[in-house]
Fold each of these.
Amino acid sequence: MASNRHLGRIVALQTLYELDFRVEAEDQDLDVAAVIEPNISRYSEVLDDTEFIQELIQGVRTKAEELDSIIQPIAPDWPLSQIARIDRTILRMGVFELKFSTSNVPAKVVINEAVELAKDFGADNSSKFVNGVLGTVFGKISPDDAKKSAKPPVKKAKATKKPEPAEEDKK
């Protein structure tokens, strides 16, 4: 399932990248469904969780302004327009998963997946940049948001004191 989700993130990244490019180019014939469908169908034999991909794509698209408003203060020296399109898309996906996704993926997994996408598709320093931004985002999200991303706490067993041996056992 993990590799399936990883592939799902790659499909979402490719789709969001293409959509972002075409919107910026003012493509008059842009049909979002026509972009999404072939990207998903290309991997239909190995993708089980297409709902996850759809949620990522639609969530990032509908919340892009809100995601950007979260990212920008964390990287003030890098206006969003100057961040490479692929890095910007990965950051939006990561912030969406950390704050809004219903998939309950632990924050460390979300950040690690984003870093891996940046290593695979970004420039040499993209992974460090993505890791720094998403780590900071996670550190700043509210405790309620953090609860959805965190694993439930593990109860530790109380340590019991080992009984002292009886006097006759000491001899």
Amino acid sequence: MKNLNNKMIKAKTTLIMLLMLFGAFQINAQSYTINQGGTIHIAPGSSVQFYDSGTDRYDYGNHDYYSMDFYTDPGYVLQITVNLFSVEARYDYLYINNGRANSSSYVFKWDDNSRPTGTIWETSGTELGFFFDSDGSVTRAGWDITIEPVATAPCAPTTSDLSLCNNSATY
């Protein structure tokens, strides 16, 4: 009987440790939908799953008109990986900005014709903005995008290319 109790205690201990380990990973894996809006901080060492208004289970809605911003700490840029992308071509667009969503200059304007699935792109600064606009008819699966901070490389422009590094002039 004592041997059976020891085995049960070991099994319970193992189960508790696995649950704690699983929980630790869940802390760093947050998910957001564009209709939540707002500005979200992504700490270095963590990542975010970013979805359309239908999440990863349903299609996005008709007449969606939402924006959402993400930012990270200085010394990092935000990297996006497009895991899934499906919106109505020529009528529904996801705009991506290298900065806040309400800024006037968008880097990308994606619809189903551009299909950026698998695309990996990094911001030049610490902010990233998304704006989505859908019409009133066809809806699709939307998107699943992973966003994570990555450390910036040291800035070393050549003498012939005095470029901007980390949004500040280098001379």
